[in-house]
Amino acid sequence: MKQLIEIPWGNGSIPISLPEKWTILGELKPKGLVNRETNPLTACTQALTRPIGAERLAYRKLAGKKTLVVVDDHSRPTPVAEFLPAILAELSFAGASNSDVEFLVATGVHRPSRPDEVVEKLGMAVISNYSWSCHDGYDLANLVDLGHTSRGTKVLLNRKLLEADLIVCVGAIEPHLLLGFGGGLKMIIPGCAWAGTIGMNHMQGVDPEHFNYVGSSGEHSPMRQDLEEGALLLHREIFIVNPIMNERAQPVEFFCGDPIAAHRAGERLVGNAFRLEVHEQADVVITNSSPMDADLRQSVKCIGNTLYASKPGGIMMGLARSINGLGEMPLPKKTLPYPVMRIILKMIGKNRILPLVKKVKKDEPVEELFIGHFGLQMLRRNHICIFSDSQLLPADIGKKMGIVRSFSDVQAMTDWAASKAPRSASVWVFPYGGATYATFNKLK
């Protein structure tokens, strides 16, 4: 008899019928924050009264001074509008008028947020009463050269950051494949940086042995260390407001204050709640993009997040909802058939993948080197397949990406995975793979 599991999908779920001889080792969900609900405005208000390592915003003298509020963009599910009034109340108490406060959407190298997306992110009241703009990582006329980090990253940042007396960074702390965790000064770099700065920063620490840093603390992520050094070249007062969100992308706790001290405290909570340790790697991992469903670039992160729950050579089955389609996912101009790619990668080995990517993409933006290297290292290690609704992604998206097999029918994906897996395969299931990450710790 087939085994039926239900995977969250939008406001409903998708049933997946698994072969009867497969053994489900477990469905791994966040710890502690599951189903937890909090009023975001109340929680943010309370956190702002007790900032970590910094003076409270309300106690500052901000009249006539310029405050720049930097927020994450449309690709992130952070519901900023739900708690933004708490931040504005603090700034107002400190004497800041509406004309003293400006908003900057940290798009990095993403497309500019559409006006309707900014309304959804900030709320109509803010859009109507405050100035706002989107960062452009390619507009050199509005970028300022601040020099280099000790790791060699050339730092060009949005001019508005230099014009501000106070910068307030608003973005969630969640698992991140290279940074370890999002949030903190990530709103500055890559959020408000030159495209070249972003590319150089993304390549920090990337090598065959360390292509995936998900869940690493700030002290152990070269990219995090590099971006923090680069952002601090601004020599401006920076204050963060970082929510921690549950598995449904609802803010449940806030970390505010010093951009490094407060962020590290938030990292620890996210690690405790969303790190899922496995003592046995499975033949098959079924991982779902929820709640990072904005587009393909965000949704496929669930595969990297849970990669180490699978055996080398095992199958990664990703359910990638991708509400806005491809998003900013770069697609290679040419690809080889999936089986040929696997054979070539196995033949050349992990140490020669990065030189190969650099040769093939020598005229491409530096950030694409990171994406190409990460994807090929995953493909060398595992079979990868993704499912998404045919209305959201092109039916041939797998061929265009080159590193995955894609399906618009979940049963067809399961049948393909079954053809690659052992008859009595072991399975881990991650219903919220966009928010959680796996670590492997073999029992002695």
**CATH T-level topology of the largest domain:** Rossmann fold
Could you give me the name of the CATH homologous superfamily of the largest domain?
Answer: LarA, N-terminal domain
**Secondary-structure class:** alpha/beta
The count of domains is: 2
**Terminal Cα separation, in Å?**
35 Å
Give helix % range. Answer: 25-40%
Question: Mean pLDDT score, rounded?
Answer: 92
Please count the helical segments.
15
Q: Give a short account of the largest sheet.
A: 6 strands, parallel
The rough form would be described as: globular
In total, how many beta strands?
Answer: 20
Low-confidence sequence ranges: none
Instruction: Report the C-alpha radius of gyration, rounded.
Output: 22 Å
Please provide a written account of the structure.
This protein is α/β, with parallel strands linked by helices. The protein folds into two domains: 3-29 and 279-440, 2-enoyl-CoA Hydratase, Chain A, domain 1 (Alpha-Beta Complex), CATH 3.90.226.30; 40-272, 3-Layer(aba) Sandwich (Rossmann fold). 30% of the residues lie in helices and 25% in strands. The chain is built from 15 helices and 20 strands. The protein has helices at 40-48, 80-93, 115-122, 124-129, 159-163, 195-202, 222-231, 261-274, 296-299, 301-305, 338-348, 353-360, 366-381, 397-401, 410-420, and strands spanning 3-9, 12-18, 23-27, 67-72, 101-106, 131-134, 143-148, 154-158, 166-170, 175-176, 180-181, 237-245, 251-257, 275-278, 282-288, 310-319, 383-387, 405-407, 426-430, 437-440. The strands form six sheets. A six-stranded parallel beta sheet has the order 3-19-15-16-17-18, sandwiched between helices. Strands 6-5-4-9-12-13 form a six-stranded mixed beta sheet, sandwiched between helices. It has a two-stranded antiparallel ribbon with strand order 1-2. A hairpin with a 3-residue loop joins strand 10 (175-176) and strand 11 (180-181). Helix 6 runs parallel beside helix 13 (366-381) and helix 11 packs across helix 13. It is globular, with a radius of gyration of 22 Å.
